[in-house]
Amino acid sequence: MIEQVKQYAKTHRDAHLNALDQFLRIESVSTDPTHQEAMTSAASFVRDYLRGIGFDTARIEETAKHPLVFAEYVKDPALKTVLIYGHYDVQPADPYELWTSEPFEPTVREGRLYARGASDDKGQVFMHLVALEAMMKTTGELPLNVKICIEGEEEIGSENLYQRLREKKDQFDADFAIVSDSGMVAEDQPTILYGLKGFTGLEFTVTGPNNDLHSGLYGGAVRNPLMAMSHLLASMKDTDEIVKVEGFYEDVEPLTEFERQLMQAAPSENYQTTLNIPETVSEKGYSAVEHTMGRPTLEVNGLFGGYQGEGTKTIIPEKATAKLTCRLVPGQDPEKIQQLLVDHIESHTPTGVRVTIKREPLSAKAYKVDPDHPLIVQASQSYEKAFNKTAVFVRMGGSIPVVEWIDDIFKIPVVLLGFGTPSDRLHSPNESFPLKNFDLGIETLIDFYMNV
Amino acid sequence: MIEQVKQYAKTHRDAHLNALDQFLRIESVSTDPTHQEAMTSAASFVRDYLRGIGFDTARIEETAKHPLVFAEYVKDPALKTVLIYGHYDVQPADPYELWTSEPFEPTVREGRLYARGASDDKGQVFMHLVALEAMMKTTGELPLNVKICIEGEEEIGSENLYQRLREKKDQFDADFAIVSDSGMVAEDQPTILYGLKGFTGLEFTVTGPNNDLHSGLYGGAVRNPLMAMSHLLASMKDTDEIVKVEGFYEDVEPLTEFERQLMQAAPSENYQTTLNIPETVSEKGYSAVEHTMGRPTLEVNGLFGGYQGEGTKTIIPEKATAKLTCRLVPGQDPEKIQQLLVDHIESHTPTGVRVTIKREPLSAKAYKVDPDHPLIVQASQSYEKAFNKTAVFVRMGGSIPVVEWIDDIFKIPVVLLGFGTPSDRLHSPNESFPLKNFDLGIETLIDFYMNV
Question: DSSP states of A355-406 as a string?
């Protein structure tokens, strides 16, 4: 039966690509207030497509900003229920002049579909619609209960989604979730993303004298805020890349030997070449890949104070500011880590200066699902069958807030099944998506839905 | 005879203030190319005044930018020759709206003469002219040979003066120099400035990846340039304010117990109050005043890299830049210190990043004259007699390049006899000069010239 379902997708490929073309033509740029109508059109497209393939419950739900599409299909309450998440909003397309073809006029060149949203995330959302359609049209039903949430604010922080998920917990509740809003570590390399990092951060300012001072008349009498800031930052992480903030590693779930093997087995970027750095630098005892995927980080994102112009200005500046964020791993609590950072800064501030701290209000716990979890095993098998290659299992150093929220609110596993490739140029001009992955991805999804 | 000379100055006070009024009305703003005519007028004023009081040789010398006034009076080649230095150019007067009276319409209020240049340096230059006039008119001659150099580019870096002094060494050569372009540490406190700091500097940039990176995807694989910069800076000076650059203190002339007593005896600013700092911080083993006046410093004047906007941007920035300057004391060679800084930076750069260094081309050696030098002793005595108060002896943490050049080119002592006060608001709106200091300063100069 699976083969017939997959055959349906192949037979109707042209119709599907035509429909996707319509979807991609809608300029659903969520950050641009003049595109409100396009946002509604894109949401309507998704709702109508779902109704068209047999979802009786498929509706647009207004939020304080952009609407989300909710749909539901209950086959048998006793069966498993999946929550499919995706987003129909896209990044702005400018600078337009760097696009080879128009961003909202989808074009195929050398097997790739070029358009804003082709990969992130309309193209991948649409693959789920096709998989669902193929099952409905071939077997007359879906193999499990399905809830669908396609939002319109992912590119601007999903500010209304988190609230909605918490307030309408029952409406969105499911046994597991599936998200295709990510990619594969290399073209043709099935990739199971089974963990994401959390984060927390803060900004702090070291203040010395009440204005910039003449470095000759006052140098030697006052603490230089820039030097005080350097001492403070240097006290937070040593040159072995080990964070020295007391308690920082206390709750870190250690990397198992099995996970370290998985991470080393995944093909990875040659950092030295792609980034033009003399060498990689990672926490002592861990490789760059292990540190990036599985160990917490502390990074200075911005640092400034004093004179920035040409030449020399001999001042002692009145203040220095640093912006810090940490990427967290399972076990670490963002609020606790933020407090440890505050404590460290306050207790390590040199004499002669004052420090003020602004805590970053957004934070997230890390997400991780056991790579041996039956859902993950099933995902990898479906993936491998379609792409004819063994899947790799990786954790990502980045954060996908919605995944962390689903984990936090519903306590259900999230299957991250992404089909993008490193060449997709998300958020940049000439975004594209390989049609091969469109086809094989749909096969993967059909196989997964029918076997899970 | 001295008393008669001083009496001359008193008797002709109104005429002198009228002449000074004319001098101050000339808008000799050296930085403003539209004021070229005013520059020539100011130079002419000085030349004509000198001719009027009996200088046969008094001329305007053109330079590549603004002219300088040179005058010469040879009484007897066997006698001592003094070189009097000053400048007739002034800082721009804007913002005009913050002036209580017009900057180029001199006004007396509560014993102070308000005008741009009243203190820095036309007012003080004019005091020398009056002292010379009083001696000439009273005794028919000057008590020593005099050379005068009043330039027009002090406020813009004296770019042509240094070259002229070197090229025409014989023309300007003297046995000692006198400069009144500074002030007293407190109103009514005769202040002998017997030392200035030298300086050197550089700017350096720590470069990591070839563009800003996503802190989640790359954090743990690359060295963060901002953190590398913090480690580098922290390695250069510890929290005891001791510079850790190897060899930095090697040639430093130590502070004698006598000098430390002089420095402690001078009234000084209450830094905590005036600067609003929790406490002063100085090199371990030295007080703030001792460090500022007599010990070398290393200061970060500017530091920047990464995101500086509102909120959070989770990047690892591609680079970080710092601007450094050192104030040097006698014994230290600016070029050697600059090389030590370069060596330190290069040898302490953490792995994984590259560093590029831009050496600041301007540098200066420190200047110091023995506080027991007969010229200095004479200056303090003349000062004390006029102001009826014991003089304090201080060194200044700042640099006055012309003093360091005179020292370097002519190897002669420079007497820094300044009559400005901390309330003069040099370079700011409402610049002023106390008329009391105009009177007592002229007395001091007369006494000095006639006794030296």
Answer: EEEEE-S--B--EE--TTSHHHHHHHHHHHHHHTS--EEEEESS--HHHHHH
Distance of alpha carbon B219 from alpha carbon A291, whole angstroms: 8
Contacts of A323 (CB under 8 A, 6+ apart): A201, A202, A203, A300, A301, A302, A303, B306, B307, B312, B313
Query: Letter for the amino acid at A162?
Result: Y
Amino acid B33: pLDDT: 86
The set of residues, in sequence order, having a beta carbon less than 8 Å from that of B423 and lying 6+ positions away, is: B187, B432
pLDDT grade for B268, boundaries at 50, 70 and 90? confident
What's the gap between Cα A343 and its chain centre? 30
The arithmetic mean of pLDDT across residues B138-165, rounded, is 94
DSSP A23-68: HHHS--BTT-GGGHHHHHHHHHHHHHHHHHTT-SEEEEE--SSS-E
CATH of B198-263+277-359, one of 3.40.50.720, 3.40.50.11270, 3.30.70.360, 3.40.50.10540: 3.30.70.360
| The Cα angle at residue B303 between residues B300 and B304, in degrees rounded to 5 | 175
Q: How far is B144 from chain A (nearest CA, A)?
A: 35
pLDDT grade, residue B156 (50/70/90)? Answer: confident
Rounded Cα distance between B22 and B340, Å, is: 51
Cβ A440 vs Cβ A387: under 8 Å: yes
Q: How far is A169 from chain B (nearest CA, A)?
A: 29
The class that CATH gives domain A198-266+279-359 is alpha beta
The answer to whether the B2-196+366-451 and B198-263+277-359 domains have the same CATH topology is no
pLDDT tens string A201-246? 999 999 999 989 999 989 999 999 999 999 999 999 999 999 999 9
Domain layout of chain A by residue ranges: 2-196+366-451, 198-266+279-359
Q: For residue B237, give the amino acid letter.
A: K
- How far is residue B83's CA from residue B175's CA, in Å, rounded to a whole number? 8
Query: What would the two tokens of residue A112 be?
Result: 């790739």
The structure tokens listed for A256 are: 């198992």
- Residue A419 to residues A26, A147, A380, A393, B274, Cα–Cα distance (Å): 22, 21, 13, 14, 63
What does the buried/exposed string (b/e) look like for A321-338 if buried means 16 or more CB atoms within 10 Å of the residue's CB? Answer: bbbbbbbbbbbbbbeebb
Give CATH for domain A2-196+366-451.
3.40.630.10
Q: What is the DSSP letter of A306?
A: E
Residue of A nearest to B218 (CA): A292
Would you state the pLDDT for residue A187? Answer: 87
d(CA B406, CA B147): 13
Chain B CB contacts of A288 under 8 Å are 220-221
Q: Which two tokens stand for residue B356?
A: 């590029």
Nearest-Cα residue of chain B relative to residue A307: B302
Q: Which of B256, B17, B297 is nearest to A224 (CA)?
A: B297
Shortest Cα distance from A86 to chain B (angstroms)? 21
pLDDT for position A68: 97
The phi and psi torsions of A368 (rounded to 5 degrees) equal -155, 135
User: CB–CB of A292 and B210 under 8 A?
Assistant: no
Report CB contact under 8 Å: A301, B306: yes
Chain length of chain B: 452
- The answer, for B277 touching chain A at a CB cutoff of 8 Å, is yes
Rounded Cα gap, residues B375 and B381, in angstroms: 10
Is B352's Cβ below 8 Å from some Cβ in A?
yes
Amino acid letter for position B268: S
Question: How close B195 comes to chain A (CA, Å)?
Answer: 12
**Selected residues 379-398 of chain B with any CB under 8 Å from a CB in chain A:** 396-398
Residue A163 has a CB neighbour count (10 Å cut-off) of 12
